[in-house]
Amino acid sequence: MMHQTHETTPAQRELLARIVRGQVLGEYIFDVHAHTCHGWAYGTIYDGSSEGLHREMDALGFTGMAVSAVCAISGVDFTRANNSLAHDITKLRNRIAAYVGIDIRHGKTLLTDIDRYLAAGFSGGKVYTRWNVPYEDARYDPVFEVFNARRMPVLAHCWGGGDITSLSKAAKKFPNINFIAAHTGSADLNVYMDLARSIDNLYIDTAFSRGPRGLIEEVVRTIGSTKLMFGSDAALFSAAQQVARVVTARVSDADRQNILGLNAKRLFAGRG
Amino acid sequence: MEFFDADTIIGRAIDQEDADAPTVDDLIAEMDRSLIARSLVTNQKIALSNPDWGNEDLARDITPHARLRGVFGTWLLQDRDNPPPDQAIDRLIKMNAAGVQLWPGMSFAEFTPWQCPDLLAALSDRQLPLFLHSDQASWTNVHDVLKAFPKLVLVLQRVTYGDFRKAFALMKICPNLHLCTSPPFVGGSVLDQLDRFLGCDRLLFGSGLFRFDVSPAAAQVAYSGLSDAKKAQIAGGNLLRLLGAIR
């Protein structure tokens, strides 16, 4: 239990009231970590369509959302999943920023395919550890070169200190990429915070199904609010549930606004 | 829409300092901050091995607060020092219990039909809800209990989102299984999906306070794609119906 001295501000009180009424939140909110789930085996039980994401964005008042296709990053079907997302963003242009879902084992056409998706309007990359290929592995270098040359962000699934340490090596090697390490609090919180604090182009996101009370407060207390970004992991998770973790956190209005969207605004200029 | 929280715990968890243990005053303050009308509450001490001491503390703490109702503990193993389960349950109902919280996993017991048949029969007879964290029993054992005691009102709490399919399948064949929305049951559109196939009358809003914050769980209900009437059912209506059925 945190016996905290935080005073709920009038702005935060209003947001908490809007939550129980299910109303638009009314702050600048940009979700850096979301997914479409077409074809995902577990997705048969979720509304993983871009329309579903759109409905949730409207209900909550999100300004923007950065999305990757689950089936592209998870080895189900790189081409079909990224193509599907490419189709979706033509419908939701300027509301959804698309990450190219990177399957590092996709094969020889990976780089030309990434180029093709970027030309079609994708604005970053999403990498995943399912491949047992650490992010500092040389196989990632040509992929990161593509995003580094375009100064585009890359979201990286991380689960604990090993993953984010590996990512931090790539971040040092590719300084024009703003990397976002996912799932702060999953394990080794101190490693997340130390690396985010010490590496300019390394950010961390909030997406976490078991995000405990006090986690966001601890990050802000330790490293401030400028390196932490709101990520929901929707449509795998409820975007409403995840954004409310930030809204209710006992931090200042300015810190909350940084996390909800202002930090991301710089990385996704022109989107949302 | 009024929220009635079906999953909160006060008292010191085993990995906490005494001074950090959430109190009933902390609970009321959180309810006020997050606009939660009423809460069920249990006491951590019940989980840490002694239901009687936990019940004493809980009864003392919640008595001044009309917005709170207790979920008390009881013994999983009847021995000569404890009253028979039917008498124990009667006593809890006289204390205005909203249910019984069991911790078989932490009590070195099995949640099975053979572990505590008299207790499960007494709960069934009195329609006193049984609350259970999902990590306290296997899905197969939960199934076996629900089938052996079809009148038992079981509320499963803190189901992980990855177990949605198991929960869905079990709810389909066990109409006495109820599901609490407390984290990590945070899958996208899960409430909509459950309602579409099974209805929403067995879904109960719960926050998981103080492990988790209240507002996230409330948001999951409030921003679902369900009608206002169905949201109100999940927010508190279903729980009130269960409490009204206690005999």
Count of structural domains of chain A: 1
Relative strand content of chain B: 5-15%
Terminal CA distance of chain B reads 27 Å
Q: Which stretches of chain B of 5+ consecutive residues score pLDDT under 50?
A: none
Tell me the CATH architecture of chain A. Alpha-Beta Barrel
Gyration radius of chain A, rounded? 18 Å
What is the CATH T-level topology of chain B? Answer: TIM Barrel
What is the CA–CA distance across the termini of chain A?
A: 37 Å
Descriptive keywords:
heterodimer, A: 272 residues, alpha/beta, TIM Barrel, B: 247 residues, nine-stranded parallel sheet
Structure description:
- The complex is a heterodimer of chains A (272) and B (247).
- Chain A is α/β, with parallel strands linked by helices.
- Chain A has a single domain, classed as Metal-dependent hydrolases (TIM Barrel, Alpha-Beta Barrel), CATH 3.20.20.140.
- Helix content of chain A is 43%, strand content 13%.
- Chain A has 11 helices and 8 strands.
- Chain A has helices at 10-21, 50-60, 70-73, 78-91, 110-119, 141-150, 161-173, 189-198, 215-223, 239-247, 253-267; strands at 30-36, 64-69, 96-101, 124-127, 154-156, 179-181, 202-205, 228-229.
- Chain A has an 8-stranded parallel β-sheet.
- In chain A, α2 (50-60) links the parallel β1 and β2 (64-69).
- In chain A, α7 packs parallel to α8 (189-198).
- The longest helix of chain A is centred in the last third of the chain and has 15 residues, at 253-267.
- The mean pLDDT of chain A is 92.
- Chain B is of the alpha/beta class and 247 residues long.
- Helices cover 41% and strands 13% of the residues of chain B.
- In chain B, strands 1, 2, 3, 4, 5, 6, 7, 8 and 9 form a 9-stranded parallel β-sheet that branches.
- In chain B, α1 links the parallel β2 and β3.
- The longest helix of chain B has 17 residues, at 228-244.
- The radius of gyration of chain B is 17 Å and the shape is globular.
- The model of chain B has no long low-confidence stretch (mean pLDDT 95).
- The interface between A and B is large, with 40 and 45 residues.
